[in-house]
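Researcher: Batch entry, complex prediction.
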Amino acid sequence: MEKAVQYEVSEGIARLTFNRSDKLNSFNEQMHTEMLLALKDANKNPDVRCLIITGNGRAFSAGEDLDGVTEDMDHGEVIRKRYAPVMIQLSKMKMPVIAAVNGIAAGSGFSLALACDFRLMHEKAKLVQAFIHVGLIPDSGNLYYLPKLIGHAKALELALFGEKINASQALDLGLATRVVAGENWHDEVNQFADRLALMPTKAVGIIKQQLQKSWEYPLEEFLDCESFSQRIAGLTSDHQEGVKAFREKRLPEFKGN
Amino acid sequence: MNKQASFIITAVENGIGMITLNRPKVLNAINTAMVGQIVQAMEQFDRNEHVKVIVLQGTGRAFAAGADIDEMLEKNTIELELLNQFEDWDRITWVKKPIIGAVQGFALGGGFELALCCDMLLAADDAEFGFPEVGLGIMPGAGGTQRLTKLIGKTNAMKWLLTGQRFSAKQALDYGIVNSLLPAELLSEETMKLAKTISEMPPLSLRLIKEAVHKAVDLPLSEGMHAERKNFYLLFSSEDQKEGMCAFKEKRKPVFKGI
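Model: Structure tokens for the complex:
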């Protein structure tokens, strides 16, 4: 059986590519299983200092594969068994995660992009909050991440009206990190990833966690976590290297730990 | 002082008696011999005047993930009665010095029961707890049903014991099973800080406080109060009580001797 998710690691960068282009990279059980395995592998691999998630073909991902949707389907179970484990694993990634949105990201494909740290959008890509059109609610953490990214009012507007958002609108809303012209797509995505992969990855991972905690903890507990986090960062060899490079007036060479 | 035993490693440092479970290849699965070694080490620490507090920790991916299934598979009722393997566990209850457990990774089945034998628990934020025994057609036998219920109440204990599901460190914190959560990288360091703080307290107070708290768990209030009062009076026979109170009055740091 052909892989629904291609996964490779090279030069500090893991690439996770949806490979169901004939189905617009829509999610089925196989794709979730393979994606979860790839994410877990990337998180365990100290060589991985940046992760790119993208799709083969025209789409990033069109969301749930409607071929699998039946009348007696328990939507809650689909989320619990297939989507939630992937979203939770994504939230635990220790390295920066880029959604390279090469084409349409609809439904849970949009949700997935929201759960990534950065969204690079191909100029022709679109984001679609498709759920409302079939009488469902935005799932896979969509309504968790969306208001944090663009505010409550805009999140509600998108969720209720479900209008297509093109790349430049996404940039204005703050949903897209960057919009990339078609001819530069691969180069720009790679350059962006390369830059992240040279960073002090341990500190990057802790920054991600700590930012997340800012939503979850009152100030006192947040500062408590911060002291632990800074202790851990202070123990990294990248910290030593950074200080050394600063004193020696040269660029640091971070190893990621 | 370092001693390499087969299933545990022990050490004494700055008033702290360390016990490290050391079967990382089997996620520190607990067997009868290991429990025997743990209890023996604790009892030695209990009699060692250089040890003020005991720390129990795992290694690798687990604090301790369950018991050795192979060891139990073929056992019958009479063999178990005669073996009386849980007697060693009971002896942990009699250890007088405070025991701090540091849980990273899995604390499952017998491993969770061992954690529940500790007086305080610190956990890495990725720790997972649970009693999977029900799925094996058995049940916890080293205090799991009793200690978990006393800690988190009947309703919650039933859920985890009857489903065998695991729960997260965060849930363990919310239930009050663990004192605090720490990043895994700092669990050991922070455990030692807590152990150091306690080790600097007067040992007789530690001893009698621990005893009184245990009474509170086991006895009706009136009897617990009685026990507390006796212990309170008892401390007034100690030199450390005089030293502690005088130092407070004289606004200086007390120097405790443990007598």
